[in-house]
């Protein structure tokens, strides 16, 4: 019964609108279930009559696995010669969808549609959720936020203490994912994502002072906190989009990342992974990503998804470790403060989300290097772009902080037009001012501080000498800024965003100690590199992606 119209498709998208999206996977057969067996299970056929009663047209018809939602229910994609009032949905040119027992009865009696594909379950996404979780950027140029924040009560938060990381992750992430991914599959993805971390606690807390802790987020494969989200997001994308159809393009500023960072992007051997070194800075890369998302015809042609730090699903995965660290240190009975080395406001926005979900937090402290747009904004109420200065903490060399827009939306009471006005002003004049009310709301939750190059180096050296703990330059910025905000009564957690061995030259220069790579990463330093150097121009990057993406040609 294969229909050539569907032969190459993976998911047949039946509807996709602001009401949400639903689709059927039409190329995965449920091997252990025949139509006969299904009809018997549904009491449409008796056990012994099946062979006799099923008409030729449907005998031996495959049952497909349509997707993870409502797997008990049959969905029939069929030709338009069959229609049931009320329950048949016309999709387009001659294709309909019916999901009632009646159509199965009709098929069993030979009165069904001439052409039909039967699937159990469907793939579904709540309004905007598909884009939220997978694509990263909204079509209006804005960023996605969940409609409301799920709430965790005190008992639930207390119960996180001592639980395995993956179990807490499942509880925190589940309410956002809703029915789009069944719990058993979500749990399997989470378990797998965190099983590969080098520390059994996944994100352990290490005490470095009387009431100061480092939350080590760097035990994943690339030695930085981004692994916590990417290990899970990669699996979610494979799950939703299908691994065979995915091409990965990594954009980074040529010559502005460390050797270890570059090698992590240039040494994967999979032929669907492309490392693109752009002759520009990090903000140029970010602007090109945004430009591609806003170029709708390109975006649709290559089925673009983004996993940079503006992807909502990344932030979602990062909320988990705030709850884990908070509960470990006594939340909800005791407040905790966090200092977060940040540039794009992604990691710290996850902390704000945790607060919105019920975690009692004394303060979230923004720690920046000399590229201090965030610290300046909180101090002055004026968000003002300046030129980027390269530093020894390159992952924070940013002067356009994409996720800050999410905070603006939150503190403006989700007033989309006021956020748009500020963003328009930023685009036109390079700056905007935040009104009194929203600014006061920001300051109630956030503090800020900056750390220059000499202070960064001194903090690395001092912490090594005093605590025997080797910091990477990004985490050192957090430790420096945290010191100015500690009051001794509240535990201060500094997010350890990178392993010192990711930035060995800067760490050695500051402390005299050359940090060693974890054993499982040593091979990377001698492996062959593959990268493509491109001008930091939208056209050039789009052209490269279009000529190298399989999705661009294999799309239905
Ligand atoms: C990406 C990164 C940061 C900054 O993260 P934000 O998304 O800007 O909050 C800080 N430190 C390291 C090591 C990073 O890789």
From TrEMBL:
InterPro entries: AlgH-like, Ser/Thr_deHydtase_PyrdxlP-BS, Thr_synth_N_sf, Thr_synthase-like, Threonine_Synthase, TrpB-like_PALP, TrpB-like_PALP_sf
Superkingdom of origin organism: Eukaryota
Pfam families reported in the protein's UniProt record: DUF179, PALP, THR4_C
N6-(pyridoxal phosphate)lysine modified-residue sites: 226
Gene Ontology biological process terms in this record: threonine biosynthetic process
GO molecular function per UniProt: pyridoxal phosphate binding; threonine synthase activity
Start and end residues of each Tryptophan synthase beta chain-like PALP domain: 257-430
Keywords associated with the record: Amino-acid biosynthesis, Pyridoxal phosphate, Threonine biosynthesis
Family from the record: Belongs to the threonine synthase family.
Protein name (database record): threonine synthase
């Amino acid at each position: 019964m294969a229909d050539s119209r569907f032969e190459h498709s993976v998911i047949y998208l039946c509807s996709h609108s602001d009401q949400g999206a639903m689709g059927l996977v039409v190329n995965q057969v449920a091997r252990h279930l025949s139509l006969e067996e299904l009809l018997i299970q549904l009491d449409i056929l008796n056990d012994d009559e099946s062979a006799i009663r099923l008409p030729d047209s449907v005998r031996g018809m495959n049952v497909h696995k349509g997707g993870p939602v409502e797997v008990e229910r049959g969905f029939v994609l069929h030709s338009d010669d069959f229609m049931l009032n009320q329950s048949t949905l016309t999709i387009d040119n001659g294709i309909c969808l019916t999901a009632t027992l009646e159509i199965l009865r009709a098929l069993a009696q030979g009165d069904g549609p001439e052409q039909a594909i039967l699937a159990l379950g469907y793939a579904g996404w709540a309004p905007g959720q598909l884009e939220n979780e997978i694509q990263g950027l909204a079509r209006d140029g804005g960023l996605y936020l969940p409609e409301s924040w799920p709430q965790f009560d005190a008992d639930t938060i207390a119960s996180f203490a001592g639980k395995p990381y993956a179990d807490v992750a499942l509880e925190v992430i589940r309410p956002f994912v809703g029915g789009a991914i069944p719990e058993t599959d979500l749990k399997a993805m989470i378990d797998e994502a965190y099983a590969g971390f080098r520390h059994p606690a996944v994100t352990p807390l290490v005490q470095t002072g009387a009431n100061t802790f480092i939350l080590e987020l760097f035990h994943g494969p690339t030695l930085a906190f981004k692994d916590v989200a990417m290990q899970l997001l990669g699996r979610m994308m494979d799950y939703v989009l299908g691994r065979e159809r995915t091409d990965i393009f990594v954009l980074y500023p040529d010559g502005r990342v460390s050797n270890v960072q570059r090698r992590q992007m240039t040494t994967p051997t999979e032929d669907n992974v492309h490392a693109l070194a752009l002759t520009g800075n990090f903000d140029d890369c970010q602007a090109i990503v945004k430009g591609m998302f806003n170029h709708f015809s390109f975006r649709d042609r290559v089925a673009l998804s983004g996993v940079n730090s503006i992807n909502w699903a990344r932030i979602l995965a990062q909320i988990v470790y705030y709850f884990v660290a908070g509960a470990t240190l006594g939340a909800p009975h005791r407040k905790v403060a966090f200092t977060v080395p940040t540039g794009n406001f992604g990691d710290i926005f996850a902390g704000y989300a945790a607060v919105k979900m019920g975690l009692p937090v004394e303060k979230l402290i923004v720690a920046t290097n000399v590229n201090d747009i965030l610290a300046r904004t909180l101090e002055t109420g004026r968000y003002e772009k300046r030129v980027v200065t390269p530093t020894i903490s390159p992952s924070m060399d940013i002067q356009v902080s994409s996720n800050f827009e999410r905070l603006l939306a939150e503190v403006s009471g989700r007033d989309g037009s006021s956020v748009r006005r500020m963003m328009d002003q930023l685009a036109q004049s390079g700056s905007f001012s935040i009104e009194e009310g929203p600014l006061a709301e920001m300051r109630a939750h956030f503090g800020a501080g900056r750390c220059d190059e000499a202070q960064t180096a001194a903090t690395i050296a001092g912490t090594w000498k005093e605590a025997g703990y080797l910091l990477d330059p990004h985490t050192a910025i957090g430790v420096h800024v945290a010191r100015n905000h500690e009051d001794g009564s509240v535990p201060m957690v500094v997010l350890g965003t990178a392993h010192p061995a990711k930035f060995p030259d800067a760490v050695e220069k500051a402390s005299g100690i050359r940090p060693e790579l974890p054993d499982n990463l040593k091979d990377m330093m001698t492996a062959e590199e593959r990268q493509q150097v491109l001008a930091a121009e939208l056209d050039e990057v789009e052209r490269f992606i279009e000529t190298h993406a399989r999705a661009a040609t294999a799309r239905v």
